[in-house]
Amino acid sequence: MAQYTDSKDSAELMEEMIQLRENVYREGKETFDRWEPGIKNTEFVDSARNLAFYLALRRRDIRELQTALMPWGLSSLGRSESHTMDNLDAVVESLSKINGEKEDEKKFPSPDSYFQGSRNLEENADNILGKSPENKSSRIMVTFPTEAARSKKLVENLLKEGMSVARINCAHDDPKTWEKMIQNIRKAEEKLGKTCKIMMDIAGPKIRIDRLYTTLKKPLLYKGDSFFLTGEESLQNFYGNEIVLGCSIPEIVSSLEEGETVLIDDGKIEGEVKSVKDDGVIVKVKKLQTKKGVKIKAEKGLNFPNSNYDVEIFTDKDKQDLDFVCRNADIIGCSFVRNPDDIHAIQDEIRKRLSKKKASNVALMLKLETAQGVQNLPEIIVTAASQNPLCVMVARGDLAVEIGYLRLAEIQEEILWICEAADIPVIWATQVMENMMKTGVPSRAEITDAAQGSKAECIMLNKGEYVLDVIRTLDEILEKMQEHQYKKMPRLRALNLAETKESTTHHLSNFQSD
Questions:
Q1: Among 93, 152, 200, 408, which residue carries the largest CB count within 10 Å?
Q2: Dihedral angle computed from the Cα positions of residues 253, 401, 164 and 442, in that order, rounded to the nearest 10 degrees
Q3: Which helix (H) or strand (E) holds 424?
Q4: Domain map of the chain by residue range?
Q5: Could you tell me if 459 and 451 are in contact, meaning their C-beta atoms sit under 8 angstroms apart?
Q6: Spatial CA neighbour of 288 closest among 361, 224, 374
Q7: How deeply is 356 buried, as exposed, middle or buried, from its count of CB atoms within 10 A (0-12, 13-18, 19+)?
Q8: Which phi and psi angles does 21 have, rounded to 5°?
């Protein structure tokens, strides 16, 4: 909260609010007018308009104004996501009444108008992710293990315990295995009288170490060490380095410049490009997540958070997988989305495989796991949702590596807000209840994390031995949180803690008389 300031009178606040409202409307309309010609999905028009107004509002620092409104019992403007202009109008109208102004044409927004955005979001979530379970606003998505292709009972139990969406990760297994998984889902639906959406997640251009050259028996990197990173298949020169790493996407290496950051294995190693050569770059290790050396292995992930590299959103394997995915998936998941051009490429590939109508009806799930993707989120949303039903996944693993762990908490909140303003459902993902998934016992931190995830329309679980126990626990958490919170809005049910117990009253009276 902003620092406490001298209180403002209602007339002064009225002038500030009117000016704010006019500026937000003007800027928001300019943005929406730029977007509108490209919006083919008519159901997204009102959502895009509200997003444009919300962005105009959030370009401003209104913390002092928020604080000044509070003593008057008025909206702090902090819950404007789904109804930006209606919220501003309501505050202006309330100040008008406080100031004793005569009745004119200005009126409070109708309840129907005020809550239309929330209804749009709920309807979009139901259509894309399936109907939300009773007493919960969040659904549960489960990543299928290979075993789900062999075990009808496992799939049946997952659906029975509360799975609403099945995630098939196309980075693993093959079309024959995926087909058996889908058959088991359909059989379980029929047996249990339930429905389950199928989300097939295209692997995308995952950047990895695909080759390791070294003269060392145990290739370890320590702080201060250097290594050579290349996209070349063969090298004539190691430039004095004992460890050479090959990058799975060569064009990225050629785009690197001095001073840029290179992260290995989810940030366990942080390096900086010190020198650029014709066939690669020399990288110096700046930080390690351990005081000991870190062993280097092929297949470990690479991240380049400061680099503005350009690679195709689909690999050759992805395009082959899309042939199966477009025929069978309810939702197509797309990884490493960075900008609107990636969205156009995704939509073009889908249109090659489906009729125009089917291509526009298939839902997209965009995984936010790069810094570029977060920076371009509003334009990405408008580009995608203008053509297709859309949901967004906060892929917190790669995203934390890209933007830094310290920024993850604030960024995931901002993603939730932006998506709510556009009526776009969100999936909360990566390492949810991971300890319980492996051991059967949850940690305190992951229970809190799961509760935080209830702000999203869906929470994704990875595979694990105790997946059924985790679903039951998560389902209970979501049911309890439903009573307390919706998005940023606390739900003020009667609190047991607020009740004055007879024993407490007795102790207080004794204390006061002492």
A1: 200
A2: 140
A3: none
A4: 10-114, 122-205+312-489, 209-303
A5: no
A6: 224
A7: exposed
A8: -60, -45
Q: How is residue 127 written in tokens?
A: 């259509």
Question: Average pLDDT of 320-343?
Answer: 97
Domain 122-205+312-489 architecture = Alpha-Beta Barrel (3.20)
Backbone φ, ψ for residue 271 (5° rounding): -125, 170
What single DSSP character describes residue 249? S
Q: What is the distance between the alpha carbons of residues 38 and 20, in angstroms, rounded to a whole number?
A: 28
Residue 163 near residue 141, CB atoms below 8 Å:
yes
Is 305 exposed, middle or buried, given 0-12, 13-18 or 19+ CB atoms closer than 10 A? Answer: middle
Q: Which two tokens stand for residue 494?
A: 């009667």
Alpha-carbon distance of 77 to 113, in angstroms, equals: 17
pLDDT, the chain, mean = 91
CATH fold of the domain at 209-303: M1 Pyruvate Kinase; Domain 3 (2.40.33)
Structural tokens at position 469: 């126990």
The pTM is what?
0.90
Q: Are 87 and 77 in contact (CB under 8 A)?
A: yes
Q: List, for residues 18-56, the tens digit of each pLDDT value.
A: 999 999 999 999 999 999 999 999 999 999 999 999 999
CA distance linking residue 191 with residue 380, whole number of Å: 39
Write phi, then psi, for 284 (nearest 5 degrees): -105, 135
Q: Which pLDDT does position 359 carry in this prediction?
A: 97
Q: In 315-404, where does DSSP find H-type helix?
A: 316-328, 340-353, 356-361, 371-375, 377-385, 396-403
d(CA 102, CA 88) in angstroms, rounded, equals 19
CB 210 within 8 A of CB 247: yes
